Amino acid sequence: MDIGSAVRAIRKRKNITIAQVCERTGLSQGFMSQVETNKTSPSIATLDQIAKALNVPLAYLLMSDDERMSVVRKADRKRTTSGGDQLKVEHLSATKGIRMMIVEFPPGASTGEEPRAHQGEESHLVLQGKVVAEQGEDSETLEVGDSFSWNACTPHRVRNVSDGTSIVLIAVHTDADND
């Protein structure tokens, strides 16, 4: 864990000097320098003082890089195809156990000829067009603004029943250990 670099980056981003942190915490400049260069590890109580001086939650200083906010710019989205290359998939974001994507269904396209099952839970929001969602014996027609969700371990599929392209935002949640 690189707490020192996080402390330094936050301090610099907020234009706070080491002297100001020391003034607010009562810590010495030498100690703060050692914290920022990871030459010493402060106690939780001391780290809490530093967090308060920087006006950030203590938990933020303890987070690893992979736990912090992740940004995917529109131009940088990973794009794939699915279902015989009928469906265009834009991968928006992913974190432990959660993936989000936008799926573009051409007229008549579906997630597959047969319903399929997999681990996890899904939530969907229809952004454009009209789709039919099928799970087991259930079938619903959904239009723009409608949403649906299901446990994905029951066979399911989505198909576009509109004359134009349908677009669906999908969030998939699985146990992080099973990703």
UniProtKB/TrEMBL annotation:
Indicate the segments forming the HTH cro/C1-type domain, all copies. Answer: 7-61
Query: Which one Pfam family would you cite for this protein?
Result: Cupin_2
SUPFAM superfamilies per record: lambda repressor-like DNA-binding domains, RmlC-like cupins
> Does the keyword ATP-binding feature in the UniProt annotation?
no
Residue ranges that the Swiss-Prot or TrEMBL entry lists as coiled coil = none
PANTHER family xrefs: HTH-TYPE TRANSCRIPTIONAL REGULATOR, TRANSCRIPTIONAL REGULATOR
Q: Which domain of life is it from?
A: Bacteria
Q: Which species is the source of this protein?
A: Cohnella suwonensis
Keyword DNA-binding tagged: yes
Protein's name in the database: Cupin domain-containing protein
Q: Which UniProt keywords apply?
A: DNA-binding
Signal peptide positions (record): none
What InterPro entries does this protein map onto?
A: Cro/C1-type_HTH (IPR001387), Cupin_2 (IPR013096), Lambda_DNA-bd_dom_sf (IPR010982), RmlC-like_jellyroll (IPR014710), RmlC_Cupin_sf (IPR011051), TransReg_Diox_bact_type (IPR050807)
